Design the sequence.
């Protein structure tokens, strides 16, 4: 594993943000459910899809200069 080359291009770094963004979004949605009497996770789950879409669009728009294929 130590000899494995990791890509540090902007596109790969942006792709690495997908799951942290989803995790933060799920946490925020549960907080909204906890503190809001009107909205619950059932009504707000499509926000997760929107966040994933935004990250994927940002990933597609970034440069892949210096990309190292694995």
Sequence:
């Amino acid at each position: 594993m130590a000899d494995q080359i990791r890509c540090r291009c902007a596109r790969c770094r942006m792709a690495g943000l997908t799951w942290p963004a989803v995790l933060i979004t799920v946490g925020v949605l549960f907080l909204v459910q906890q503190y809001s009497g009107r909205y619950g996770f059932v009504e707000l789950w499509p926000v997760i899809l929107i966040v994933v879409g935004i990250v994927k669009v940002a990933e597609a728009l970034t440069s892949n200069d210096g990309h190292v294929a694995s």
User: Anything to note?
Assistant: DSSP finds four helices and no strands in the chain. The CA atoms of residues 20 and 26 lie 10 Å apart. Residues 16-61 form one domain. The chain has a mean pLDDT of 88.
